[in-house]
Design a protein that fits this description.
With 134 residues, this protein is α+β, with helices and mostly antiparallel strands. The chain has 6 helices and 3 strands, in the order H-H-H-H-H-H-E-E-E.
Length: 134
């Protein structure tokens, strides 16, 4: 995965990015020893074994992100570090919990292919709000 991101976008993946991808691919949010796990074809890209609650595979999800990020402006945002990207929704909420109004982060959508979720703190929203940009 790291090679694919680096060759396509010019920037490889961090350890946190790789851990997120391993957790998503293995469908295990508390994956221990993720660096020594081997991913089966079924979990990677078998249409009969999509991601939980979705109608797409892990690879379809990753590939859609690569296509999405190849656009010049998005690639620049990713390479400059303005897109947090690989973060679980709950983690995003926790990161924003005590942040001032107007704070936001950009993460990759779990439910939409090739989409970014904007999670932010707004007045009168009762905490964190999310909207999708396709």
């Amino acid at each position: 995965m790291n090679y694919k991101f680096k060759s396509t976008l010019g920037l490889g993946l961090s350890e946190d990015n790789l851990k997120f991808l391993a957790e998503k691919a293995f469908r295990n949010l508390n994956l221990e020893d993720w660096k020594n796990q081997r991913l089966s074809w079924s979990l990677f890209n078998n249409p009969k074994d999509p991601l939980p609650g979705r109608d797409f595979t892990f690879w379809e999800w990753v590939y859609a992100l690569l296509i999405f990020l190849r656009e010049e402006q998005l690639r620049a945002l990713w390479c400059e570090g303005y897109v947090m990207g690989f973060v679980w929704r709950r983690q995003a909420e926790e990161l924003l919990l005590n942040s001032p109004i107007g704070t936001f982060l950009l993460r990759f959508s779990d439910s939409e292919l090739g989409a970014i979720t904007v999670a932010g703190v707004g007045q009168g929203l009762g905490g964190v709000a999310e909207t999708f940009m396709l």
